[in-house]
Specification:
Layout: H1 6-11, E1 46-52, E2 56-63, E3 68-75, H2 82-95, E4 102-106, E5 109-111, E6 116-119, H3 131-139, E7 146-150, H4 151-162, E8 170-176, E9 180-186, E10 189-191, H5 222-225, H6 227-236, H7 243-252, H8 256-279, E11 283-287, H9 294-308, E12 318-321, H10 328-340
Helix pairs in contact: 2-3, 4-10, 7-8, 8-9
């Protein structure tokens, strides 16, 4: 996909890879520099995490105490297939100095024991591919030191460690990008369920008979409220597909843009209500590339939640933007490594 993908447009990132090596992006205030390959480097507490998305690979290195050391972003090049994706992942890991272990977040259903993705509407080439073992072989690591987890789950881990969910023992992180993901924190720990499928909020049915989803069902939350779906809905209304511009217009004045984002937020709230009712959740963080629009989505999210939840008021809800932005995934993936040490 190109850099104009709505999720990445909203995030304001994507440095790209076009056959000339990797390019790095650091948080504001950090001077950019080239990241040398560090084969043989003693790890010394350096944790490396990678967040593989449908459009881009975001990766970085962080210390065990949470100091961000390096960051890079490249195109995923999904259309080139699993082997090309693997090559990009290995190159990222090498650039960031992997010597001992690696954490990886991927969209879709994960078989943690086998170390592979079993199903991913947005990364179909990886379904059934022996990702953990091939990564370990390519990097010279013990396969047990390569941890793979769902991308929204690692985003939740990142936000709970260093972001907006710090101090919350019960929280739900929803990620809005190419698709919609969810990560659930219960009693200060990531909850994945009996077989690792918990919090797959993007594939709950919000509108029966609605738009066809990549999973094969109709009316999934992902088809209504992801960055991709919102851009589609905006284009259908003649508003264009630029989500950054759409969000800015919604902030500035009443009108079609604000009305659309209110409705998108309402759909999000309706989806989240299913989790809220079951678990008495009150804290929701909105992340992913399109999470930057949380402020204009929030009124609709509240409406959707209250419409389908019993015994709650607007004051009961804590809906806020995920504070780590596009770094949440790779930071959470690095946290996987920290927890395994």
């Amino acid at each position: 996909m190109e850099a104009s993908d709505p999720a990445l447009h909203e995030a304001g990132l994507l440095l790209g890879r076009r056959g000339r090596g990797l390019h790095q992006g650091l948080p504001p205030g950090h001077a950019p520099r080239e990241v040398p390959a560090r084969r043989g480097l003693v790890n010394a507490g350096r944790l490396v995490g990678i967040d593989l998305g449908g459009t881009a690979i975001k990766a970085g290195a962080i210390s065990a105490t949470g100091e961000r050391l390096d960051r890079l972003e490249v195109q995923a090049e999904v259309s080139r297939g699993a082997e090309a994706l693997l090559e990009n992942l290995i190159e990222c890991a090498r650039q960031l100095g992997v010597t001992e272990s690696l954490g990886l977040g991927v969209p879709g259903l994960v078989d943690r024991e086998a170390g592979l993705v079993t199903q991913s509407p947005n990364l179909a080439p990886l379904a059934g591919f022996p990702l953990r073992d091939r990564l370990a072989k390519g990097l010279g690591l013990d396969p047990a030191r390569v941890r793979i987890e769902n991308d929204a789950n690692v985003a939740a881990l990142g936000e709970h460690w260093l972001g907006g969910a710090q101090g919350e023992n019960l929280a739900f992180v929803i990620t809005l990008g190419t698709g919609v993901g969810g990560g659930l924190i219960i009693d200060d720990k990531l909850f994945v369920g009996e077989r690792g499928l918990a919090a797959e909020i993007g594939h709950t049915i919000v509108e029966p008979g609605g738009p066809l989803c990549g999973c094969g069902n109709h009316g999934c939350l992902e088809t209504l409220a992801s960055a991709t779906a919102t851009a589609r809905r905006a284009s259908e209304l003649g508003l264009g597909g630029d989500l950054k511009q759409l969000s800015a217009e919604a902030r500035q004045r009443p009108g079609a843009a604000r009305d659309l984002l209110l409705e998108v937020g309402r759909d999000l709230g309706r989806g989240l209500a299913q989790v809220a009712v079951l678990l008495d959740l009150r804290c929701f963080l909105v992340g992913g590339g399109f999470g930057a629009a949380c402020d204009v989505l929030k009124p609709g999210i509240e409406e959707g939640l209250l419409e389908r939840c019993y015994g709650r008021t607007r004051e009961d809800l804590r809906i806020r933007p995920a504070s780590l932005g596009p770094d949440a995934g790779w930071i959470g993936a690095a946290r996987l490594v920290r927890e395994s040490d």
